[in-house]
Amino acid sequence: MRIQHWGDLMKFVFRKLVPVITLVCMTLGSLGIRDSLAATPEDEPSKIANIVQQEIKRCQSAFAQGVTDLSAGSSSLLQVSRSGEIELVFHAAGQTGAGEKADLEALGATIVSILEIPEELKLPSVGMIQVWIPYNRVEEAAALPWVVAVTPPGYGEPDPHPANNINSEGVVLHNADLAQAQGVTGAGVTVGVISTGVANLATAQSLNELPAVTVINTNTLDEGTAMLEIIHDMAPGATLLYDDGAGTSTSSVTRHFNALNSLVTNGANVIAEDLAFDSQPAFQQGLLASTAEAIATNGVPVHSSAGNRGRDHAARVQATGTGGGPDGVNFMATPPGCTNTPDNVVAIAPGGDTTFDVVLGQPGAGSTSITLQWSEPRAIFPTAGQGGFTDLNLYVMDAGLTQCLAESVGIQANGQGDTIEQISIDLPGTAAKIVVDVQGTSSAVAAPTLDLRWRRMNAEIDVTTRAGSLNPDSNYTSLATSAAAVNANSSLIEGFSSGGPVQLGSTTVCPGGVPGPCAGVAGGGINATPAPTWAAADAVQISGAGGFGSGTCPAVNPGDCVFGGTSASAPHAAACDALIRSLPSFGAASAVGPVNARLVATATDFAPPGPD
User: Fold this and answer.
1) Which DSSP symbol is given to 474?
2) What is the rounded CA–CA span in Å between residue 503 and residue 482?
3) Which helix (H) or strand (E) is 53 found in, with range?
């Protein structure tokens, strides 16, 4: 048995920027779960994500019934065209190029982008090609010898929190007004921003809220406009850049990667970004976290939003089956809508409760998405081609536990199968129960830790847990940083603000870290790193250009036109960075480590002293 210690969660909340120290104590228990299952051919792990497999079947059925518009399967997790093309990413264990592109095009695919990693980032070899491909050619494409996984693109999610002079209250909270009074304005520093768009940038400029901004690519929303306004309030002398990599399309992992590198290429000295990618590895540094760390190592700091999942996240617990059904129900037969019978469920709610009770999303808010990951290798970067040992299934059941409303039942065994299950469900106002079941353990040597999070839920009945809810793409352990949200008007950490620690590692791996099938060996356990790095202002006023911001814009009453969430905190942190870089003793191109150290050294602790 491996025992690991890290202490109770502690946060330093500071008037400026605040390091957050996270220590958690956890003991890995025994694996006491269902015996290993002998895999039959139809039960073997697939390269294709389960949510994609389900969509292929839906398209096949709809086409057979004469349906001509197949786009009904589109959701926040997966996009489908009217004619049945699905937007997907094909992952390779090595670099991809013209040959792999030709392979996909021969199957009717339209290329969206091919991942090209700049040599200076020094990242491991990886290949990703994002395409639109006919639903009936996906399985052929997955069978190509270079393909190791087929996944949705991993669309970026904006991280604002829905809920007085348009100058951000963060200017005073972070003492930027005192810096400006001494001539420290960010002059000579270029700050780049990535968000959901700057569609109404001209409106903010007409209100004298923004100067000229170099826009490389922009989406159709305006959260980027709000972030730029905050940076300009804090560091009015800084030059501003914007790129979300998307143009008129939805952001995705590959587009976000391109945007990060584009800002560097176009001269950014500091980067602020606030998009969340729930499908990035929760227990590894995925492509986006690794890229941000590499960019920071090369001298350009990346300040990310920590996320607003503090109330949309279950406790990270061991995926140990209880040997029974949800809430003690033992089914006589497989419930309708379920592929398998959930009869070895995990206690995922407080007090040993084996269901997490929720009310699904509100009308007009879009589908509720639920993502489950666990601490075994993913089949994508940085362990492309590897996979899981513990076969977990994710279900959404009705409140009476009579049927499955939705499920994700991908197969993982002996180092094969991606360790992620995702559900998109559009039944607003419906009382439901989230269930996680251990279908099998193959050659797992220890029970993994699971991460369960969701978006656009109407209400959580059971108690949520902030710890571990950090955006997976902000799994930083070195120079890149993340920002939690402290209310600029109350100086308190927001209840929705995500928490750490960053927990990286695998409980079971193949010997030598190679792809399966294999008999698993111990993976070294999970290491913890304190996170988020800073606490910075949110709940601040903006112009409301493009209708963005809660309440009436421009502000009429106190609390109107407020921009909240860690999406507001990240640009405040980035602007503090820019102010330091404009000091003669530093400079725009200063190394990231010394600037981070200066931010720590000049932070002011809120009373009482010590952890808050």
Assistant:
1) G
2) 15
3) helix 50-64
pLDDT 10s digits, 48-86: 999 999 999 999 999 999 999 999 999 999 999 999 999
Q: How many Cα neighbours within 13 Å face the side chain of 397? A: 30
Q: Collapsing DSSP states into helix, strand and coil, what is residue 68?
A: coil
Residue 518, burial from CB neighbour count under 10 angstroms (0-12, 13-18, 19+):
buried
Q: For residue 213, give every residue at least 6 positions away whose Cβ sits within 8 Å of its Cβ, in sequence order, or none.
A: 198, 201, 205, 228, 240, 241, 242
Coil/strand/helix, residue 253: helix
Task: Say what angle helices 223-234 and 566-581 make with each other, to 10 degrees.
Answer: 40
| CA-wise closest residue to 470 among 400, 559, 533, 412 | 533
| pLDDT, position 6 | 25
Alpha carbon distance 609, 612 (integer Å) = 8
Structure tokens at 589: 């191109």
HSE-up (13 A, CA, CB side) for residue 133: 31
pLDDT confidence of residue 608: 64
Looking at residue 450, its pLDDT comes to: 98
Burial, 74: exposed, middle or buried (Cβ in 10 Å; 0-12, 13-18, 19+)? middle
Q: What is the pLDDT of residues 387-427, one digit of tens each?
A: 999 999 999 999 999 999 999 999 999 999 999 999 999 99
Is there a contact between 35 and 134 (Cβ–Cβ < 8 Å)? no
pLDDT of residue 35: 40
Look at residue 227 in the predicted model and tell me its pLDDT.
Answer: 97
H-helix or E-strand spanning residue 172? helix 170-173
What value, to the nearest 5°, has the Cα angle with vertex 57 and ends 55 and 58? 60
Rg (CA), the chain: 24
What's the first-to-final CA gap in the chain, in angstroms? 34
pTM greater than 0.85: yes
Residue 210 amino acid letter: L
- Residue position matching structure tokens 């039944």: 427
Q: At what angle are helices 287-297 and 253-265 packed, to 10 degrees? A: 10
Q: Sign of dihedral through CA atoms 364, 369, 370, 375? A: negative
d(CA 395, CA 436): 6
The pair of three-digit structure tokens given for residue 337, joined into one six-digit string: 């809508």
Cβ atoms 557, 152 nearer than 8 A: no
Given a cut of 50, the residues of the chain with pLDDT beneath it are: 1-41, 161-165
Contact criterion met (CB below 8 Å) for 472 and 420? no
